[in-house]
């Protein structure tokens, strides 16, 4: 563990997200958002060297380009995968996604489509995008930068990503590869109990169980919550000097 007292909440979130990639092996990492992107790159440079990174366009990278840039700005290209091949990779389970979520319910149903009645929404979001295919075909984690009762709701307005209750109730074989992993937020790391309901795995340093409960719109089990680990000295060095020297992570997570 790092003994650096200046570790930020964003850096704790980065390593918590990085730990979600442990054991992934040689699969395509699909990371949506700044913190997930840094986390996948950190995992590859430390404990998960076979993880396959993309530059966000079509190139697969052994060394990533600068944040927010594609292969033309740097990094080391080792292969390429045009858009049509991504669907083949996804359908064969050789992918691991860490997506965002505008709403999540107790069973991990995710909404990124719209808020309010779907026939006349109060807010239009980005649409379901790839969430159905991701949750049907391979492991999917979620990253939430602002843990609040507006995000963690009793029932999502639109199901974009399939939750555990719906997957278990489905009678066919289409959801046999359904695999929800963790939900990392700016307050905690959540995973699922035997009934498929969200629970608190760990609280970030300085966060209380009461704080998480008050910011969650349904009852959530905090009884066995550990403390989220701090980054190691090596991880801090990589985050601060190699992966995100401009400190962009602190724009996504409050200090």
Taken in chain order, the helices and strands follow as HEHEEEHEEEEEHEHEEEHEHH
Structural class: alpha/beta
Query: Shape, please?
Result: globular
Query: Tell me, what is the CATH class?
Result: Alpha Beta
Determine the fraction of residues in helical runs and give it as a percent range. Answer: 25-40%
CATH architecture grouping? 3-Layer(aba) Sandwich
CATH superfamily: Glutaconate Coenzyme A-transferase
Distance between the termini: 20 Å
Low-confidence stretches: none
**Spatial strand sequence of the major β-sheet:** 1-5-10-11-12-13-14
Q: Approximately what portion of the residues adopt beta-strand conformation? A: 15-25%
Biggest sheet architecture: 7 strands, mixed
Please report the total strand number as a whole number. 14
User: Which fold name fills CATH's third level, the topology?
Assistant: Glutaconate Coenzyme A-transferase
Give me the secondary-structure topology.
Elements: H1 9-19, E1 28-31, H2 34-45, E2 53-54, E3 59-63, E4 76-80, H3 83-91, E5 95-100, E6 103-104, E7 110-111, E8 114-115, E9 123-124, H4 131-137, E10 139-144, H5 164-169, E11 179-185, E12 188-192, E13 198-203, H6 209-214, E14 226-227, H7 233-243, H8 249-252
Describe this structure in words.
The protein is an alpha/beta fold. The chain has helices at 9-19, 34-45, 83-91, 131-137, 164-169, 209-214, 233-243, 249-252, and strands at 28-31, 53-54, 59-63, 76-80, 95-100, 103-104, 110-111, 114-115, 123-124, 139-144, 179-185, 188-192, 198-203, 226-227. The protein is globular, with a radius of gyration of 18 Å. The model has no long low-confidence stretch (mean pLDDT 94). Pfam families: CoA_trans. Keywords: Transferase. Belongs to the 3-oxoacid CoA-transferase subunit B family. One of its GO terms (molecular function) is CoA-transferase activity.
């Amino acid at each position: 563990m790092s003994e650096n007292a200046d570790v930020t909440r964003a850096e704790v979130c980065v390593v918590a997200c990085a730990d979600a990639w442990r054991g992934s092996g040689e699969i395509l990492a699909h990371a949506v958002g700044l913190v997930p992107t840094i986390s996948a790159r950190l995992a590859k440079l430390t404990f998960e060297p076979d993880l396959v990174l993309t530059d966000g366009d079509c190139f697969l990278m052994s060394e990533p380009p600068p944040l927010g840039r594609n292969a033309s700005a740097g990094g080391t290209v080792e292969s390429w995968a045009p858009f049509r091949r991504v669907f083949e990779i996804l359908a064969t389970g050789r992918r691991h996604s860490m997506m965002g979520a505008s709403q999540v319910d107790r069973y991990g149903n995710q909404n990124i489509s719209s808020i309010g009645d779907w026939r006349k929404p109060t807010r239009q979001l980005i649409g379901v995008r790839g969430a159905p295919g991701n949750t049907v075909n391979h492991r999917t984690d979620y990253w939430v930068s602002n843990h609040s009762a507006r995000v963690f709701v009793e029932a999502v307005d639109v199901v974009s990503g399939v939750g555990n209750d719906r997957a278990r109730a489905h009678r066919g074989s289409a959801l046999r590869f359904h695999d929800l992993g963790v939900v990392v937020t700016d307050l905690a790391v959540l995973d699922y109990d035997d009934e498929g309901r969200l629970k608190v795995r760990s609280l970030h340093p300085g966060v209380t169980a009461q704080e998480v409960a008050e910011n969650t719109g349904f009852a959530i089990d905090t009884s066995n919550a550990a403390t989220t680990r701090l980054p190691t000295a090596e991880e801090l060095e990589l985050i601060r000097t190699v992966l995100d020297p401009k400190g962009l992570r602190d724009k996504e997570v409050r200090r």
